């Protein structure tokens, strides 16, 4: 009965969405008309590079979105990625306000299981991976004050990047020649004692350009025990060796001396006081400190061979310490070294007289963590050490992709990748036995796709691809002991099928529709025992849905953006850790409906106003689907103006979030405290009420 009801609701949502799309989709007569118009106007080329094979967007057989600088910057606080990416269909964000756990991002269900950080999604900035070989991603060092462009691939993409590739976020920060030479100073302030200052300077001299951005943020937070301080520095130095060769160095530094964690509340605690922290979070002063430095070097050469060679090397060091909001083995620390090299070669040639564009390359990445864990008493005293080990992950991979133009309109794409991933633990604490060990995975990923241009700026595509995702070191934690590997956790593997259409009518209305169906075997899901999070494999999961994005410039002044996601995420052949039959249940933490709309007015001279609405459908907090999280509508508004005084400019901006002061949850800790009664589980992190921010930017 439950499955029938879920299926009926899902069908209704699809019917509604298809009704919307049918109004937009061109008939055969319209296609011919648009084709004629397109040929008269000429192609507008928007190149994407996140799939590694650089190509025109309308030749790309994948759900790819591009977010440019105005969407990232205009009237935004530039604290978290959701500000810029909310209007990208298929993306779901949680945990915006807990800087100790960081933003959680999921796409098509990948990434939803992480209680902190991001899993299953590849993150990279300026060619430097922010995703480790074991699949963990941290985004606290991403500097949105420097970001110039973000490309998003939705859906499994292991053929491009291997492990942890349920999707890709490829962020490019500004170069010295991307902005007018000069300097910019930003000062922000707002609710909950929010304060931020950022200064940026850039310039060009001969063949060399440089840019540097420094920012510092403080916030006390809307809950107890949620104060945070963070400093970021990002710099790029580029030098053109000649017209076809270029060298770019990137340096990023994060200093996060305080990020408190208020913990998850039970429903009764939320009703009593949604702004409180848990008792133990206060007593133990839970939170984290982080210092990280990253150096990257990119070399591009279009002269050494007929095609173009790109080589990226990087080194990152991260020093991390955290007190979790419960006693026991709850104080963790690690010292991490992450380094590697990626190289690729792209060339255009011919096959059987038809144009062929192909890319091939190799990745070698290594991660080494010196990890410690300590026992903490209920009074906050360290009573002993429970873990001392070195975790090493090495990934070696080769890949190749090609696009063959079968006709002037029809492209055939084929790609494959081979990954060798070795995870090992060297136990340095032998009092309780030797928990050393290793796991090795050899995986082959593939993708095949067709792309057909209905017109120069209208495309339909179909893709079938495979992906794999290994458990991270954290997810390999053994519930029977403090160290070593859990032998019962295996990688999850996905088969992705997708069809989509995208296009641009005139120069005002763009649309992007994708239908997907994904089957995942051995889905990795979390559960908690004695406050700690452990992981297990579900038998199988099914994910299917629709993603629709519309961007309509109604006039010079008015623009409407809409992103609708309708999806069904289902557990199959799975019994949870309490013996509940979860077959047919929804995967926890994933709403079946997401709908974001933005109406924006743009006046002369930089004046603007934007109203955003966000609907998040209901979802469940655990595998057994016993706790339903209610749906919510959230509204926000941003306004701003710019003034010119001589050769200097001043921009004023302000924003209101949660305009209607709704009660909602900014984060739900999936499957938390699974060993407790349902009413005693600390799932909920309430979001703030109505909050305000304002700022000024001086460009000189």
UniProtKB/TrEMBL annotation:
Residue ranges of the motif TonB C-terminal box: 683-700
Gene3D superfamilies: TonB-dependent receptor, beta-barrel domain (2.40.170.20), TonB-dependent receptor, plug domain (2.170.130.10)
Domain of life, source organism: Bacteria
Membrane topology of the entry: Multi-pass membrane protein
Ranges where the TonB-dependent receptor plug domain occurs: 57-168
CDD domains attached to this UniProt entry: ligand_gated_channel
InterPro entries cross-referenced by the UniProt entry: Beta-barrel_TonB, Beta-barrel_TonB_sf, Plug_dom, Plug_dom_sf, TonB-dep_rcpt-like, TonB_rcpt_CS
Major site of localization recorded for this protein: membrane
Compartments where located: Cell outer membrane
Domain TonB-dependent receptor-like beta-barrel, chain residue ranges per copy: 249-659
Pfam families xrefs: Plug (PF07715), TonB_dep_Rec_b-barrel (PF00593)
Protein family membership: Belongs to the TonB-dependent receptor family.
UniProt cross-references to PANTHER family, sorted A to Z: FERRICHROME IRON RECEPTOR-RELATED, FERRICHROME OUTER MEMBRANE TRANSPORTER_PHAGE RECEPTOR
Protein name listed in UniProt: TonB-dependent receptor
Organism whose genome encodes this protein: Marinobacter excellens LAMA 842
High-level lineage: Bacteria, Pseudomonadati, Pseudomonadota, Gammaproteobacteria, Pseudomonadales
